[in-house]
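Researcher: Let's do a round of design. I'm pasting the structure tokens now; please hold your answer until I've finished.
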């Protein structure tokens, strides 16, 4: 394929690694690449971009923005990866939300992409558009990576108990593929209407997915306390977390030493399978002319800003200035302004179909937002109560 200019060539061939993504990304216009101010021990993958905008732009005309902000947590354990090489029309983006350390995220940021590409036969399955084969390949890739991660943690990080959720997307002009474990989420804006494309994997709640997760955990021999598996972890699907997979007996011993339970209690516990799993939900979404943009973000956003408000916010931002990167940074800051206690990581992909200057600004109802926040808190506590009663 003939390249149009040197910037496009750099875009196709370049993968950059930076020392962290704790704060919002900035643009070095002298060399047309993203740069990140070093303020934590985190890494972030990035790609080249159009020098005329602070947003990343890929060959399909899709414009990307991304950012990570650290909340009140002691460490920044999130990571974002965006890649556009080797997929013939498909871009790749991922949000990793780590916990109990950064080791698992550091392993996944490269290995998951490579394993997915191998399972997808270098992208041939994506182009073939046989969803059953795509779903089977991605499920196999996620489970293989988890097995490799657990082995790596066992061999090199003896005391490492880290884990990570992962939500990845393969995005083309007309199709979106999502593979997802954990509590990050993907939302699609269709002519301003939010479409939530994923369900969080959590061991509490009264929705169908949560009830299925609760049932699976109990059948595996686990229990739930205050919305957490064995009183410890609040997600039910994740990579790593060796104590809830291959080291469950060590988890019991550790809990005994910490006074969480008694020896008599342990004697009655019988595990039948892993309490956490890395088997993903995989979705295929057709993108018609009404598809405007997608928002892929960690739960640090969605626990404080719902999908409707997020879509309205991003549309208004793009209407004002058209810059996806600035919209992404503003959305993350809005979550912080609403007292988000978690780290916030966001990727926005503008599909390039919308004339944002012709879209009217939308008003947000402050009283409605307050009511929604109260209702959300009530639903969360109701879900925890329901799960404890099952």
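Researcher: That's everything. Go ahead.
Model: Designed sequence:
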């Amino acid at each position: 394929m003939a390249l149009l200019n040197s910037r496009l060539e750099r875009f196709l061939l370049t993968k950059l690694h930076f020392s962290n993504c704790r704060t919002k990304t900035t643009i070095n216009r002298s060399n047309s690449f993203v740069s990140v101010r070093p303020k934590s021990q985190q890494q972030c993958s990035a790609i080249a971009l159009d020098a005329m905008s602070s947003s990343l732009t890929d060959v399909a005309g899709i414009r990307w923005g991304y950012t990570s902000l650290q909340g009140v947590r002691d460490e920044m354990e999130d990571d974002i990866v965006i890649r556009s090489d080797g997929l013939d029309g498909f871009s790749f983006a991922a949000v990793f939300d780590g916990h109990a350390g950064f080791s698992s995220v550091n392993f996944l940021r490269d290995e998951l992409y490579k394993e997915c590409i191998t399972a997808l036969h270098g992208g041939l399955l994506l182009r073939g558009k046989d969803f059953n084969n795509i779903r089977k390949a991605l499920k196999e890739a996620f489970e293989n990576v988890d097995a490799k991660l657990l082995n790596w943690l066992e061999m090199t990080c003896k005391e490492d108990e880290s884990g990570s959720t992962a939500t990845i997307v393969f995005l083309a002009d007309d199709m979106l593929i999502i593979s997802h474990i954990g509590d990050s989420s993907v939302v699609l804006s269709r002519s301003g209407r939010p479409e939530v494309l994923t369900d969080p994997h959590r061991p509490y709640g009264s929705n169908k997915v949560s009830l299925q997760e609760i049932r699976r955990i109990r059948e595996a021999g686990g229990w739930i306390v205050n919305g957490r598996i064995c009183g410890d972890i609040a997600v039910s699907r994740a990579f790593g977390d060796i104590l809830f997979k291959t080291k469950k007996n060590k988890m019991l011993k550790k809990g005994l030493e910490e006074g969480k339970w008694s020896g008599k209690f342990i004697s009655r516990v019988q595990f039948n399978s892993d309490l956490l799993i890395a088997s993903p939900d995989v979705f295929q979404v057709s993108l018609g002319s009404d598809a405007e943009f997608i928002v892929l973000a960690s739960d640090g956003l969605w626990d404080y800003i719902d999908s409707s408000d997020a879509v309205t916010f991003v549309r208004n931002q793009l209407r004002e200035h058209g810059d996806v990167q600035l919209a992404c940074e503003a959305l993350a800051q809005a979550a912080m302004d609403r007292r988000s206690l978690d780290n916030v990581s966001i990727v926005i992909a503008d599909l390039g179909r919308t004339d944002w200057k012709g879209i009217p600004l939308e008003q947000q109802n402050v009283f409605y937002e307050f009511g929604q926040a109260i209702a959300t808190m009530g639903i969360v506590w109701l879900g925890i109560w329901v799960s404890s009663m099952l």
